[in-house]
């Protein structure tokens, strides 16, 4: 266990230094090919869990030491061990013993006594310490204070529910590829394999227990893709039909583009500025048996890739803060800075303005983010409508029923991620 504690605390240290969790984990797996599947799964859980509850863990740690811990490695190791003690079923004595031994491996031999004392004190005073940690916003919600303040202003009634939803384990939802099977046939296939699942949308299937992609029945054969139910709303909203010229302006890794191709025989251009991510688009299309034009280019600068023929439909699934999907990427909470939101909004504005010029008269553009922040969502669209006099916003069919929220805003819950959609038509 000490090996995984050590690896997880190193990864978390890198993340808090500014690196993404996905890329750090990918690097870790490459650098440690000998790790067993069990060790990988545990390391991954320690990284995700510690980052998910980092605010709470730091509040606990601060209450357990007399002086602030200066050594980042020690702090990292204790965060991981506290996460294990508070949130996992591992035996407490083993967690403490291994963490103390891990000190040695990290060159922190002199801190063994302190580590032991801190973790044992936590076990003795756990209930009181947890109650105390919950008194501060960061200790209660485990998000940076600015993020909590922002949601409190933007969602006075729902901010606590949104923050808590972001700390839960995400659901695993599949999209049934209707070119290869049907909902009924696929549900029967899952049942035959003993997989408990239920349909939660036209093509969406929620698995009761998450599992690795490779173990999902029919995945390799292109029967299904992994896609959140909120993301699955995009393609049907675009009202697709055979032969329509469609642009997916931010296509990688290709989830929504593939869904569009599954729904209709459209003439699709899948654009993205990231060549490496476009390889994933190609791989997804190949697995699902789909075909489209895949283009590397900047959506803000169509002069470099556009052939001048207008598109009937455009999906602008723009880069954003990803504040609606933090339960899948808990590192985002700690990587984002307040100024990033305005920066994202600026890029989104440029992208919307550039893409609008490519839309045919009467055509539709679907603006999408996986954010819950207003600047990126309904405020962005309101500003756009003021600038573009030939644009009108359409009411979304089957919109979320929560009338308290701005139109198109989906808040994260047990069925889907936080998402925002605005459907715009050119007069
Ligand atoms: C939210 S993701 C898209 C997810 C995708 N639509 C899907 O459903 O799988 C945003 C994408 O925008 C791409 N991107 C960022 N800036 C871009 C730009 N200026 N032009 C085109 N793509 C861009 C990123 O590389 C990223 O793949």
Explain this structure to me?
This protein has 427 residues and is an alpha/beta fold. It folds into 3 domains: 2-136, N-utilizing Substance Protein B Homolog, Chain A (Orthogonal Bundle), CATH 1.10.940.10; 173-226, Alpha-Beta Plaits, CATH 3.30.70; 231-426, Vaccinia Virus protein VP39 (Rossmann fold, 3-Layer(aba) Sandwich), CATH 3.40.50. Helix content is 46%, strand content 14%. The protein has helices at residues 2-16, 21-31, 37-52, 54-64, 72-87, 92-105, 112-133, 137-141, 145-154, 159-165, 183-192, 234-237, 255-263, 275-288, 331-335, 338-356, 378-387, and strands at residues 172-176, 197-199, 204-207, 224-226, 245-248, 267-272, 293-296, 311-317, 359-369, 391-394, 409-410, 419-426. The strands form 2 sheets. Strands 5, 6, 7, 8, 9, 10, 11 and 12 form an 8-stranded mixed beta sheet that branches. A 4-stranded antiparallel beta sheet has the order 2-3-1-4, with helices on one face. Helix 14 (275-288) links the parallel strand 6 and strand 7. The longest helix is centred in the N-terminal third of the chain and has 22 residues, at 112-133. The chain is globular and about 70 Å long. The protein starts with a helix and ends with a strand. Bound molecules: S-adenosylmethionine.
Key attributes of the depicted protein:
Rossmann fold; binds S-adenosylmethionine; 17 helices; eight-stranded mixed beta sheet
In short:
The protein has 427 residues and is an alpha/beta fold. It has 17 helices and twelve strands.
Task: Examine the secondary-structure arrangement and name the CATH architecture of the largest domain.
Answer: 3-Layer(aba) Sandwich
- N→C terminal distance: 62 Å
N-to-C SSE series?
HHHHHHHHHHEHEEEHEHEHEEHHEHEEE
What fraction strand?
5-15%
């Amino acid at each position: 266990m000490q090996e995984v504690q050590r690896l997880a605390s190193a990864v978390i240290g890198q993340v808090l230094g500014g690196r993404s969790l996905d890329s750090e984990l990918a690097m870790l797996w490459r650098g440690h090919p000998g790790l067993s599947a069990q060790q990988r799964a545990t390391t991954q859980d320690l990284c995700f869990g510690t980052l998910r509850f980092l605010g709470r863990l730091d509040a606990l740690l601060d209450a357990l030491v007399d002086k602030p811990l200066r050594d980042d490695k020690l702090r990292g190791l204790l965060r991981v061990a506290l996460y294990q003690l508070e949130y996992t079923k591992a035996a407490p004595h083993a967690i403490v013993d291994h963490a103390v031994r891990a000190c040695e491996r990290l060159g922190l031999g002199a801190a063994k006594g302190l580590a032991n004392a801190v973790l044992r004190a936590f076990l003795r005073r756990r209930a009181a310490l947890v109650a105390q940690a919950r008194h501060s916003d960061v200790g209660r919600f485990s998000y940076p204070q600015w993020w909590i303040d922002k949601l409190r202003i933007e969602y006075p009634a729902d901010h606590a529910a949104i923050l808590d939803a972001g700390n839960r384990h995400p659901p695993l939802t599949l999209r049934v590829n209707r070119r290869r099977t049907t909902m009924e046939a696929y549900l029967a296939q899952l049942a035959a394999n003993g997989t408990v699942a239920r349909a939660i949308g036209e093509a969406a299937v929620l698995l009761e227990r998450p599992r690795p992609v490779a173990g999902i029945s029919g995945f390799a054969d292109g029967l299904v893709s992994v896609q959140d139910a909120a993301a699955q709303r995009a393609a049907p909203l675009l009202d697709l039909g055979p032969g329509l010229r469609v642009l997916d302006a931010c296509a990688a890794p290709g989830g929504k583009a593939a869904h569009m191709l599954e729904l209709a025989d459209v003439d699709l251009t899948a654009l993205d500025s990231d060549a490496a991510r476009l390889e994933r688009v190609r791989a997804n299309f190949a697995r699902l048996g789909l075909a489209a034009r895949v283009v590397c280019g900047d959506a803000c600068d169509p002069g470099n890739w556009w052939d001048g023929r207008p598109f009937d439909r455009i999906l602008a699934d723009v880069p954003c803060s990803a504040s609606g999907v933090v339960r899948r990427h808990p590192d985002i909470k700690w990587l984002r800075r307040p100024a990033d939101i305005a920066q994202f909004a600026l890029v989104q504005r440029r992208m919307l303005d550039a893409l609008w010029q490519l839309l045919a008269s009467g055509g539709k553009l679907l603006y999408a983010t996986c954010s819950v922040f207003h600047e990126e969502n309904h405020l962005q669209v309101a500003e756009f409508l003021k600038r573009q006099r030939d644009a009108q916003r359409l009411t979304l069919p089957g919109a979320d029923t929560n009338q308290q929220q701005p139109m198109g805003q989906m808040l994260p819950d047990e069925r889907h991620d936080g998402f925002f959609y605005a459907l715009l038509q050119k007069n």
